[in-house]
Records
---
Amino acid sequence: METNYAVEMKNVTKTFGSTVANNNVSLTIKKGEILSLLGENGSGKTTIMNMLAGIYFPDSGQIYINGKEESIRSPKDAYDLGIGMIHQHFKLVDIFSATENVILGQEGKERLNKKAVAARIREICDKYGFDVDPDKKVYNMSVSEKQTLEIVKVIYRGADILILDEPTAVLTPQETEKLFTVIRNMRAAGKAIVIITHKLHEVLSISDRVTILRKGEYVGTVDTKDANEMILTEMMVGKKVELNIDRKEPENTVKRLEVKNLSCYNKEGRLALDNISFTANAGEILGIAGISGCGEKELLESIAGLQKTARGSVIFNDPESGQEIELIGKNPKAIKNLGIALSFVPEDRLGMGLVGSMGMIENMMLRDYNKEGVIFLNKSKPKQVAEAIKEELGVVTPSINTPVSRLSGGNVQKVLVGREISSAPAVLMTAYAVRGLDINTSYSIYNLLNKQKENGVAVLYVGEDLDVLLALCDRILVLCGGKMSGIVDARTTTKEEVGLMMTSIRKGDTKDE
Amino acid sequence: MSKAAAVREPFIRITKRDKMPIWKKIIIYVVAIILALAVSALFIFFVTKLNPIDVYKTMWQGAFGGITDTVKKLHRSVTIRDICTLLLLGVALAPAFKMKFWNCGAEGQMLMGGVATAFMMINLADAGLPNWLLLVIMCVSAVIFGAVWGLIPAIFKAVWNTNETLFTLMMNYVAIQITSFCVAKWENPYGSNSVGIINQATQVGWFPTWFGQKYVLNIIIAIIATVAMFIYLKKTKQGYEIAVVGESKNTAKYAGISVKKVIIRTMIISGAVCGLAGFVGVAGVDHTISTSTAGGRGFTAIIVAWLAKFNTFFMVAITLLIIFLNRGASEIASKFALNEYASNIITGIILFFILGCEFFITYKMNFRKSAKEA
Amino acid sequence: MDSVISLIQAAVVFGTVIMFGCIGEIMSEKAGNLNLGVPGIMYIGAIASLASVFMYESHVAEPNKAVCVIIALVSCFAASALAGLIYSFLTITLRANQNVTGLTLTIFGSGIANFFGGSLNKMAGGVGQISVANTSEAFRARIPGLSSLGAFGKIFFSYGFMVYVAIILAILVNYFLKRTRKGLNLRAVGENPATADAAGVNVTKYKYFATVIGAGISGLGGVYYVMDYIKGTWANDGTIEKLGWLAVALVIFATWKSVNAIWGAYLFGILYWAYFYIPNLTRASQELFKMIPYVVTIIVLLFVSLRKKKENQAPAHLGLSYFREER
């Protein structure tokens, strides 16, 4: 049967334990079109596409490929049907070369002919303007090289239905534009392409149609030509978003943290921070903007005493004694022992900030279990703190003893932020504090941060959403490839300015102090 | 594949369970053990043509019963003695495993403890020390030797992240050769290639007989170690640190815990308790030293610690099961003229079933709904 | 000179036992399964071949040597692979912990082997009485003419055929893992099963295949041990277990490359027997010498972890089970 639809998914439902990831979702993908799958984090975009790629199997519902009902039990089935997915977390074998990764899982003559494959890879690269060295080992590749390799892999396999899961998250604007050119070329060749994203401007610039999911449910599909940011946002979040964050003018700002000429190397031995200098003031929120991997992680971890630094200093001005204390060269314990209340909400919540298998009470102890008692743990105070946080922040959990890994992402974050605020910090650092959270939880986090600012805390906010950075912060430090592009006033700057600074260094143009 | 089959969902799909009530877990374990005993019974019947029920009865007799009261007493005290040693080793592994440090070196750590004990027993036999003091010296030296044997792989793990499973495994064999060396040095009588019973006449350095029982001290040490380790892991700051390091090293660093220090400290404790087991094995049970002083129990203890999910009280139950099988098997070996390695076979079968049944606790199987095929 | 030659000969014979164990374990570990049941598997392989050959030899008036060899090899491989299947089912399908399952398999295997070994001895008339002379002879047969070529012949040709089988197997496994499509897929399963899965590799199938075939190969170490090393007899002395652990050690020593296992195995053999050829050692210090292979393995382990060269490390997913729908 001839059909215009490459993919039809009908009434697909998928649950994980008690969480419903997709509820009765139906969508279609036409041949020769680019479909954007839009939704907030956690709206089930990736899950529904994983079912198309054979990673998950639906609990119920049907999938039609080219008009025929199919059962996709494994990625291999998906490949046989011409479906290729480029995952957000790259599916590459580190110690293999590019060629070996491309051959992996493919059928053909038993004896490997790497030379022929490498030649074919070069051919594909030439055709689309990619740059991949077939012999390079993946562990030597940069993020964008890895993504390029992923795309080459799928093209090599001759997929007709391509799914790209947030492909631009790790790319520079130039690389993104290049990617979009390739995608348009593939559309011209009649392929069906799905882009999973939550970036509206990308949706509008690349796609033909947009399908929107919200909280695991199908909301609707619109033609891009009839859509604008307003309409899409409304469909995505369900109601009109109050974009105004209640930002007060900073009062009584004093120097709290002084970073001078800070440099450090990452695990791979590359320069991750290059000569960073700035001041964070008490009573203000300093935003930190940059493409992920620009050194934001290393910056916060250097201040927290978790990252070995090569040069520079971090001076903490003690609000009580007025003393200046050097933090570099001290580990978290030493910093704490000096009586410095430095709170840190790391990006990796369950892998760094919290212990997933422990309940709220035991997680409350994580930062100061050592404070009281000699040998034995004191659980009475952490219990009070846990109960207070559950009450005040509205953490949804069966009990304060339930392992936090069983809580939803938003509640996990509330537990973490709640704990870090409960210690009455002088400095509060947050990395991607609202990633994966729904709008309401995000706003409650913004409010918490603003309250801390009003209490005279120096807040450092690393974020990815420029709108939020502009609305929440007082000043924004922009990083680009480990270097400082500058510091801008959040009230007067524009998204375009920050966006430009994130991708290119403006020499001799730092507006600090 | 036919067209009809192509649109079917897989016959069985596996998903993770949220949580299972404790009574269901117990039922699963009991069913697994019963199935294992049934399989073992089939095996016994086909190989030996003996009635499996008789065989199991005999096993029970061997572990807990006996025809006369004396035999019964003997059986029970031997069973309890063996439980004590294995339990100590399981308890020793608990903190290491909780930290996700796969200490497969209990065998060697126990042997080193045993070697130290025997050394003191032999060399201080004529020193005229009071027996309690000698026991204390033996105990301390055993604990130190065991701790050192645990410390070595820990240092390399902490500093260079050297694979501890393989390192501790190799350390076992180094310890076995050291034991062989010592046995050759201390052999008595000359040429026997064994140390013989140390201080047989004087019983210097032996555990005392209290209330007419030889193994009171064994029991006391085992109980203290079990309870103390339970408290250590659940209630103390160091136990908390172990749990955090086991969950995520990054979290530990974030919390200001020195991962290296915790790894090293925990392995000292783990090795020390293994050394203590060596002390109990030599001074309280064998009164000699040989390469079979540990007798593979260091490996069995890994299974005990794992199945008990590092809870020292569950270890008592699992140790009981394993020792019952061992004792029972050696009884059937003598009664039915079988070979006592039969116990290894039955132990293996039961452990296979217990390991397998845990799948049904963690995962749920979803069978294809037949209605969908239409 | 003579003693050097006889040391080399002893080392080759010794090395062949652990080389089989090691090659099989490399297959298994490359697919991400750390099978600590190798000693048990070698036990099972040994007793299966011994028992079936014993049955054959005692029921046939004039046993055919070729048949003996075939029976020994087939029964050994089948029984070992079956043991590997038990391990695979528990760790791959039921996702039980690999270390614990492997150790249990070692307990089980030593139980089976020593139980039946003891019974066979009893059937044959007492401890150490069992003997399958015919088969053992076939296993130990030299290539006529070549072994008499002086020192050269003694060093290279004075062995039974299994010595050469082991070397060929090591090279074949190396070729398979490095140069073939299936080998590439198998390595990917051990490095990153999620990636292999997404690329359309059937992870479960590959893991089963590698572990079961690997177990079969490891088991051949057992048959070589009973038929050649101890000349077709049986003793419940735990030697196989010791050799099995050395095979596991050799995997590390060879940095997961089966061609390295060839010289590594012989080096282990030399280290193991060196004490025998060093004059004036007391029995006590001989025991210390026997420690060397383990110490050397530890040193290699340290060296590998210090150098951090990616290609020399254990497969990244070694010891972990894979569940596709993990979230």
Note: Residues 1-8, 370-374 of chain B have pLDDT under 50 and may be disordered.
---
Amino acid sequence: MTLDTVIFFISAVVAVFGATMMISQRNPVASVLYMILSLVAQAVIYIQLSALFVGAMLVIVYAGAIMVLFLFVIMLLNLRGSEDLGAHSSPISKVTKYVVSILLFVEFVFVIKSVIIGSPVAGLLTTTPPVDDFGSVKSVSMLLFTKYLYPFELTGILLLIAVVGAVVIARRDKADDVEDTHSSTGTEPAKTDEVVTK
Amino acid sequence: MTVPISAYLTLAAVLFGIGTIGVLMSRNIIILFMCIELMLNSANLALIAFSRALNMMDGHVMVFLVLTVAAAEAAVGLAMIITIFRNRETINIDRYSMMKW
């Protein structure tokens, strides 16, 4: 068992553990933190696959920006984590999701079993040494700005549309604004009471 | 490198499965949203593993594009969550079955 294998197994176990804990938490803040743990473990695996730039970008963009956005929203919504989420689901939806989840689980057990026994892709090892500066910033950006220049420009337009769309969707209406300035003189619980009665 | 690519692909499949099960089981819309991000990430892991095995860098560019789309999706989706929460005062996905009444 070489060092590569040890690093892979440790980070794979941490990634799966973080993902499992993420979906099983009641408190959304804890869920976000477990997601960050899983992302960092995945970044380790990226770097082991000599994708240095993408690994660093995963930590910076995902763990640094997107997950902080999630935390912001959770704190903006002022969730207490004690809301009873199971009160309103119908029995059909409960049964359906358990059955589908168990079927998926069985399917993945078969996938893992076939890999252990030996699948067609098992012959494709990552033993060949990487080409020069594989995964470095320079080689990724060379591809990005020559071969994939058009998708890259489209990405910029997509981000612009997303930013404008997010602002438009999350904006309050003018009428709500007027009510809000009236109610903002009161305390926070009074404000939520007003929304409920409205 | 002594780890075969099938190990990486298995890990990607397991993470994708956890994400799918989370989407099915979760009633909290924020956790459901994070499960979608997890599924995108597992696809990224498969892309990186294949680009390493084939010694082609194109997969890294694909991962870059997927990350950008994920960021845009998170921004718009969280804005929608805020708007729905303002009207419904809940994050329970079962209460969102009707968008208008």
Note: Chain A has eight helices and no strands.
